[in-house]
Design brief:
One of its GO terms (cellular component) is periplasmic space. This is glycerophosphodiester phosphodiesterase. One of its GO terms (biological process) is glycerol metabolic process. The protein is 35% helix and 13% strand. It has 16 helices and 13 strands. It has helices at residues 3-9, 13-26, 56-64, 126-129, 143-146, 157-171, 184-189, 194-204, 206-210, 221-230, 250-254, 261-264, 267-273, 302-308, 340-351, 363-371; strands at residues 40-43, 69-70, 73-76, 82-84, 107-111, 114-118, 176-177, 180-181, 213-217, 236-241, 279-281, 312-313, 357-360. The strands form 4 sheets. The chain has a 4-stranded parallel β-sheet, covered by helices on one side. It is globular.
Length: 373
Amino acid sequence: MNANMMGRRHLSRRRFVATGAALAGALLLPTARAASTRPLVFAHRGASALRPEHTLAAYAQAIADGADYVEPDLVSTKDGVLVARHEAFLSETTDVGKHPEFASRRTKKTIDGETHEGWFVDDFTLAELKTLRAVERIPQSRPGSAQYDGMFQVLTFEEVIDFVAAQSATTGRVIGIVPELKHSTYFARAGLPLEERFIATLAAHEYTRRAPVEIQSFEVANLRLLREKLGKRANLRLMQLVGVGPVKPSDVAASGGTLTYEQMATKAGLRTIAQYADTFAPPTRALIPLQKDAKLAAPTSLAADVHAAGLRLEPWTFRPENRFLAADFRDGAGEHARNEAGSIAEMRRYLQLGLDGFFTDDPALGVKAIAGM
């Protein structure tokens, strides 16, 4: 580890608190966006059904298609720069495997309970990462997106903010950012904690001091820390993401705790979440599960329970291909076929539960689904 890396790793708590306080004061500025009563459309990794995820093209398409917010998932490079990737694993969404100069960095890691073999973001500096190009994750389902393979760089969080701010200035529409802090516990153990850099980045940009920002995580401790440092501000919300079943958030598992996502989705669990977060974000099937025939069953009580706890309800993720739709909405054109009508119909079924927002890989279809309600 070089001296610069050690300096970043050992930033004092005093500086962290001061940065958080500075941002908290800045966030007192009035938001430029009027409150909306209609559900919000979150562009999941950008318009990732149409362009390679987390690229300028994906974000541009999402904004053009009417998304209210765009999502950069955030991970850290070896030299401590926040970049937009869905996870630390690079092999599925970049052309890293085609770079012989990085062949020796192929390795195996277990992150948040999942083991992958390939290349990982925290083994690359930003300069090295910038030599890679993005590729489509599921080309068999999204060949139209795959035609853009190799065209776009991996983006830093600051580049995403600048781009969204520029698009806002061009369109005259304030566009929110819904960043997710990925693998916080893993990166902290690697000496690359995300939260401090994240708070500093928000504070450094005028746009994120005024425009809507909704911060997500599947972990708990990082959201509690962010609430402590940032407080409650007009343009800022915190979103607790959850999975399903008796699975523990990564930070809970690492600390030997017992809390599971299943417990977090109970009435008591939701009341606890409301003490530090504003939004509860479950997978869609936790709201209306699938039957054995893959058709929708009756809704659970979760939507009502979330609202009763005083939380917003913003589930993830709607995708427009048959393979991802409930059987009620498939059109028989093949599992990889794009099915716009079916996707819109499925979203409308869930919107009847009173969603405050939702994530979709195709924001244009989300906008149409809302318009038809």
